[in-house]
Amino acid sequence: MIPTAEVLSVASLVTPVEGGIGSRILSKAPGGTITLFVFDAGQGLTEHTSPYDAMVLVLEGEFVLVIGGVECRAPEGSIVRLPANVPHALDAPVRSRMLLMMVK
Q: What predicted TM-score, i.e. pTM, was given to this entire model?
């Protein structure tokens, strides 16, 4: 969780992991979570589902997502909705940072 009423640098909240993925939960409430992720180039998440809708906000770099079998490229500054119970996967071709908002 991040402190209330304090301005923070997004880059300082999660440290990139060489050859891996870093994450930090920024907010967790009964209605959902907000998590900041940083992916090193070539990293990703294999196909999975979630019982909740999610929004991916690309803060830096780009992601290639496959949502229900449909591939989409999400460049820096874009947002993508992942519907509940639909299989999805994600790859980062370059070091990339995203905000994942899960809505229950």
A: 0.93
